Amino acid sequence: MTALEEQAFSAEDFLTWEAGQEIKHEFIAGEVFAMAGASDAHVTISGNVFAALRSHLRGKPCRAYIADMKLSVQAANAFFYPDVLVSCSSADAARPDFKTEPVLIAEVLSPSTAAYDRGLKFAYYRELPSLQEYVLIDPDRVGVEVYRRDASGHWVLYPYGVDEMVEFASVDLHLSVADVYEDAWPAKAA
Description:
Blueprint: H1 11-19, E1 25-28, E2 31-34, H2 40-57, E3 63-66, E4 70-73, E5 78-80, E6 84-87, H3 90-94, E7 98-99, E8 102-108, H4 114-118, H5 120-125, E9 133-137, E10 141-142, E11 144-149, E12 155-160, E13 165-168, E14 173-176, H6 177-180, E15 188-189
Parallel strand pairs: 4-7, 8-9, 10-15
Antiparallel strand pairs: 1-2, 1-5, 3-6, 4-5, 6-8, 9-11, 11-12, 13-14
């Protein structure tokens, strides 16, 4: 990732500035980063996960959001656009522009961001006290990784492959890997 602007923004300045932009930008500690477009598989997988979560959460206090909803990570002075997030917070439900208390975040990996999504971005997300699960989905190789915070605060990896059911414990949903990859099957299995 390369910073877009030379001058540092405050979080408030960023929100004002970005509202007038045609493309999305992430914000980290005063720096602004333009976001690239996504592949067909990336968009399809994100949509599949969002649709399953949206349907499952209908009538419940939790809400699912897809790629255009900003997430504020105040401890990192940052704003991100996760592919999918779920919040069960009444404060988040009342806030129209960004969310701060997700229980689940899902990111579909891309070649240019996979290392960042697994590393520094995950470190930022772990600063969110509400976050219970972080999901990584590889569009090029069948594999869903769910990192779940355990009772002692440690993050434990739960990998899922072909013919398995992915557990999203934070929202009590089981979803088949086939449903995650519907219409977007990669050539290789993990």
